[in-house]
Write a structure and sequence with these properties.
Elements (H helix, E strand, L loop, with lengths): L2 E10 L2 E11 L4 E5 L6 H9 L6 E6 L2 E2 L10 E4 L11 H10 L9 H14 L15 H14 L4 E5 L7 H18 L2 E6 L2 H7 L2 E6 L2 E6 L1 H6 L4 H6 L4 E8 L2 E4 L2 E4 L9 E7 L4 E4 L7 E11 L2 E8 L4 E8 H7 L6 E6 L3 E4 L4
Parallel strand pairs: 3-8, 3-9, 6-7, 7-8
Antiparallel strand pairs: 1-2, 1-4, 4-5, 9-10, 11-12, 11-14, 12-13, 14-20, 15-19, 16-17, 16-19, 17-18
Helix pairs in contact: 2-3, 2-4, 3-4
The chain binds adenosine-5'-triphosphate (ATP).
The site of adenosine-5'-triphosphate has 13 residues, from strand 2 and helix 1.
Pfam families: ABC_tran, CysA_C_terminal, TOBE_3
Keywords: ATP-binding, Cell membrane, Membrane, Nucleotide-binding, Sulfate transport, Translocase, Transport
GO molecular function: ABC-type sulfate transporter activity; ATP binding; ATP hydrolysis activity
Length: about 350
């Protein structure tokens, strides 16, 4: 089931939560709505679900306009941040719930419900919890049960609002990989809301970056990460260092360092801001022509990666660098040592000064 979102607007009083949203989400894809708090992600999800009415615009499932259809008639399944399992029901009863409350003529026979619930519990790898109560499960297990419950009614669209938001980092990371594998198996068109860029990059087929009720950019995670459309997306998708840059004839200059900027081939020099990710900087322990001379302020080892904070004493700028531990070791650098930096790559946005 594809989802079409056309010219959706929504205000709460005088506050405009969604400005003019247009999106096409292909059938079977897992899409992440990614953005900072208040950017309108949940509001958009609730409008797709039918829990909220847009002021104008429409929602299509396949080609059909379902904007006026009640939430119960849209065929959507939900998973929210707070599990919302029924405490007084067993896991089995929770997962079966959506089937048992169907009107009699649509309700499957008990044996069929039992078979389906057991299959779903196997799918979320929690078959052994059928007779337990939610309180006897971990947070991560409860979210997997919530997902099984949402899938029980065979939704055409699955909507997840920060489904792992309440869990600790390790469980969260496990569950996102698990969700990715599960989605590869069942291919139900899914939309999930997150403000965690790593989660979106890792899990989604498609990312929609939102800000202040607008879509800043959308595309595959790789495309959006490698080709951020604007400074907001660049900064939102990961750490970045900003340098003043002069651009002309397909080249940008950060100080005396020349880098390729093929998109700007103007004859006249223009000013801009160069965006350089921490892993796109080479570090040297001996002087290099044109390199930025820095003092190593902080060295942090995070597993196989070393993070450096380097101070450019001539400008006062703190530069963030990330490199593999093995590579860092060969440099034999220590805190307070002098080092030289050469950015390898930068993306320049014109018209901003530092
Ligand atoms: P978060 O990650 O914090 O949930 P979000 O991107 O999901 O943020 P929304 O929940 O969609 O953002 O909210 C967008 C804006 O609309 C927020 O500023 C919020 O305060 C406002 N808003 C949402 N629902 C209502 C409501 N029922 N009444 C008034 N304002 C609302």
């Amino acid at each position: 089931m594809s989802i079409g979102i056309e010219r959706i607007r929504k205000s709460f009083g005088s506050f405009v939560a969604l400005q003019d949203i247009n999106l096409q989400l292909p059938s079977g894809e897992l899409t992440a709505l990614l953005g900072p708090s208040g950017s309108g992600k949940t509001t958009l999800l609730r409008i797709i679900a039918g829990l909220e009415q847009a002021d104008s615009g429409l929602i299509r499932f396949n080609d059909e306009d379902i904007s006026q259809r009640h939430v119960a008639e849209r065929g959507v399944g939900f998973v929210f941040q707070h599990y919302a399992l029924f405490k007084h029901m067993t896991v089995f009863e929770n997962v079966a719930y959506g089937l048992t409350v169907k009107p009699k003529k649509y309700r499957p026979a008990n044996a069929e419900i039992a078979k389906k619930v057991h299959n779903l519990l196997e799918l979320v790898q929690l078959g052994w919890t059928a007779d337990r109560y939610p309180a006897q499960l971990s947070g991560g297990q409860r979210q997997r049960i919530a997902l099984a419950r949402a899938l029980a009614v065979e939704p055409k669209v699955l909507l997840l609002d920060e489904p792992f938001g309440a869990l600790d980092a390790k469980v969260r990371a496990e569950l996102r990989r698990w969700l990715r594998r599960l989605h590869d198996e069942i291919h139900v068109t899914s939309v999930f809301v997150t403000h965690d860029q790593e989660e979106a990059l890792e899990v989604a087929d498609r990312i929609v970056v939102m800000n202040k009720g607008r879509i800043e950019q959308q595309g595959t995670p790789e495309h959006v990460y490698d080709n951020p459309a604007n400074p907001f997306v660049y900064e939102f998708l990961g750490n970045v260092n900003l340098f003043h840059a002069r651009v002309k004839q397909g080249q940008s200059q950060i100080g005396n360092i020349a880098l390729a900027s093929p998109e700007y081939n103007n004859q006249d020099e223009q000013q801009g801001l160069a965006y350089v990710r921490p892993h796109e900087i080479d570090v040297f322990s001996a002087p290099q022509a044109d390199a930025i001379k820095v003092k190593l302020d902080l060295i942090t080892i995070v597993g196989p990666v070393v993070r450096l904070e380097a101070l450019d004493e001539s400008t006062g700028q703190l530069i963030h660098i990330e490199l593999p531990k093995e590579q860092f070791k060969t440099l034999q650098l220590q805190q307070a040592d002098t080092a030289w930096l050469l950015p390898r790559y930068s993306k320049v946005f014109l018209g901003e000064g530092i």
